[in-house]
């Protein structure tokens, strides 16, 4: 699927620009091992999800998806936040669209194309430091966009998983804004270690995107609902609804 994205980007660029972009996208820094995914569900009360996670004895946090998109896409340029598609046809369409978005970002960063950059940057065989700094600034926004869009396959799953109604944030393991340590690390899981990077979804509870929390069907709602309300209030999450699950949880 990544190759489909690259081909789409090349089709929307001049030949030399397309070749230069394809060379950049072929580097390991844009490969799957440099990409991270956070998964969400469009429903907060699905039997399949409660069975799969926490045996029903957990909590489903309900976010405002528009607020998350505004923060991650517009403000912090974390990457791509979008719904998963459950057919090959729509996956191909998504890959083509992502390729065009990469091409458009390339054109915005380099209005004159790669040849204009070369003409401006090379003076008698000498590359000036100011030229390098200028080009780096131009490509900063492009770099933060390329990696997640290239991982278009992350937004495609087999149709048998349709009832999951999944959304995903696809981002980089290294922060697109800063190279400093921002809370990343590794945790143990079945089969080894998982590398992660902490991604902020708010500056404070006052402007946060959390709208409701649903108590899992495997927990006593009266007790856990009151405990949850107290906890939310203690951490400054006022106005967040606490709801009971309507799922009749069974494992057999």
TrEMBL record:
Domain of life: Bacteria
A Pfam family assignment: DUF2971
Record's protein name: DUF2971 domain-containing protein
Organism: Leucobacter insecticola
